[in-house]
Specification:
By secondary structure, the chain is of the alpha/beta class. It has 2 domains: about 1-115, NAD(P)-binding Rossmann-like Domain (Rossmann fold, 3-Layer(aba) Sandwich); about 125-275 and about 310-335, 2-Layer Sandwich (Dihydrodipicolinate Reductase, domain 2), CATH 3.30.360. About 35% of the residues lie in helices and about 25% in strands. It is built from 10 helices and 15 strands. It has helices spanning about 15-20, 35-45, 55-60, 75-85, 100-110, 125-135, 160-165, 170-185, 285-300, 310-330, and strands at about 1-5, 25-30, 50, 65-70, 90, 115-120, 145-150, 190-195, 210-215, 220-225, 240-245, 250-255, 255-260, 265-270, 330-335. The protein is globular and about 60 Å long. The chain binds nicotinamide-adenine-dinucleotide and (2S)-2,3-dihydroxy-3-methylbutanoic acid.
Length: about 350
């Protein structure tokens, strides 16, 4: 049995607790939030002990890992605390506010000889995964063009008010997921250029971003996201794909429809299941939480580095940083040395 503790009992952590409850061989024995009401409510809901101080919790509990579900500003001190306590760590995206913080966290967990995985779950959504598996299997040959797109008018600010008030919004919150999907599909990136806009006047950061990526593999991808797009049907929170390869093409269309054209055409319904604790339209994301948690546990048991390890995520985070710099300076940036 692996014993874990959750730090941060807010909006998204509830999904993580439900997810863990469905993973065999894992028990989340303690939860912590500096807000005592949130800590106690989550502890009571899921049958764990409640704490308001992470250091006190790590000192009192016998743990194998911590799951950090706080917002980005607290990630570095909490990851370093867990590393000092000799624990494996799974930490929510965005990993860090700066590359220096992210590198320090990777080094701290490495020095402890433990595993650090980033909860970068979009590449683990079952529909997206079906597309990644098809591309990696060579179903359309070698990709030369891709579009990874997420456009929505869904009110994300109601559940996550900080998204309206933080200086950075869509690239750091959502673009990070779809940049990571582009890496999973087409490999590491050589150059990136980006434009950003704020369309909604009531928020502080940018709610639209369009990015152009040149990949090491020779593919070019367009990665675009918007929370200012009124569309019907509303596709939140689906990531849609269009990929052209030298032998065929792949589309992940709205409604979780995967179309692969080679000599003929195959159409698959890749809709995620509605888990008993999940609710539409979030069920796509909610299912991926459990899938990524299972990957974390499998990697711990097998002694493997997770696909979305802290080290791997440095490359996704570099794209976020470079996209902001490119949009600010109207430049195209080589990210190989970031
Ligand atoms: P939230 O503000 O609702 O919850 C964060 C909680 O952490 C708060 O209750 C806060 O009191 C607590 N906290 C902060 N610092 C703490 C500390 N040092 N010790 C103990 N508790 C502390 O935020 P949220 O919307 O749940 O987002 C949390 C993270 O999850 C963010 O990084 C966000 O980007 C991410 N997120 C990921 C997904 C996904 O699909 N991967 C979806 C939504 C949110
Ligand atoms: O997945 C996320 O990071 C969320 C949302 C889907 C709303 O962008 O913040």
């Amino acid at each position: 049995m692996l014993n874990g503790a959750l730090i941060g009992c807010g909006f998204f952590a509830q999904n993580q607790m439900h997810g863990w409850a469905g993973i065999d061989g894992v028990a989340i024995t303690a939860v912590c939030d500096r807000d005592p009401e949130k800590a106690e409510a989550t502890a009571a809901r899921f049958g764990a002990r409640a704490y308001t101080d992470a250091a006190a919790m790590l000192a009192a509990e016998r743990l194998d890992f911590v799951d950090i579900a706080t917002t980005v500003g607290s990630h570095r001190p909490l990851v370093e605390l867990a590393a000092q306590a000799g624990l494996h760590v799974i930490c929510q995206k965005p990993f860090a506010e700066t590359m220096a913080d992210a590198q320090a966290m990777v080094a701290a967990v490495d020095a402890a000889g433990k595993v650090l995985m980033i909860h970068e779950n979009f590449r683990w959504q079952s529909a997206v995964r079906a597309a990644i598996d098809a591309i990696r299997a060579g179903d359309i040959g070698t990709p030369f063009f891709g579009r990874v797109t997420f456009r929505s008018g869904y009110d994300v600010y109601a559940g996550q008010p900080y998204l309206a008030t933080d200086a950075r919004f869509i690239i750091q919150d959502l673009g990070i997921h779809i940049l990571d999907i582009a890496r999973a599909l087409f490999g590491d990136v050589i150059t990136i250029s980006a434009t950003t806009r704020r369309v909604n006047p009531k928020i502080r950061g940018e709610d639209v971003a369009t990015m152009l990526l040149e990949h090491d593999s020779g593919a070019t991808s367009v990665v675009d996201c918007s929370y200012a797009t009124r569309r019907s049907p509303e596709t939140f929170p689906e990531t849609l794909l269009e990929i052209d390869g030298d032998l065929g093409s792949l589309r992940l269309d709205a409604g979780y429809r995967l179309v692969i054209q080679r000599e003929g055409e195959t159409i698959r319904d890749v809709a995620p299941p509605l888990l008993p604790w999940a609710s539409r339209p979030w069920h796509n994301i909610q299912e991926s939480v459990q899938i990524i948690q299972q990957h974390f546990v499998d990697c711990l048991r097998d002694g493997r580095e997770p696909e979305t390890s802290g080290r791997d995520n440095l490359k996704t985070l570099a794209l976020v940083e470079a996209a902001y710099a490119s949009a600010r300076d109207r430049s195209r940036l080589d990210v190989r040395s970031w």
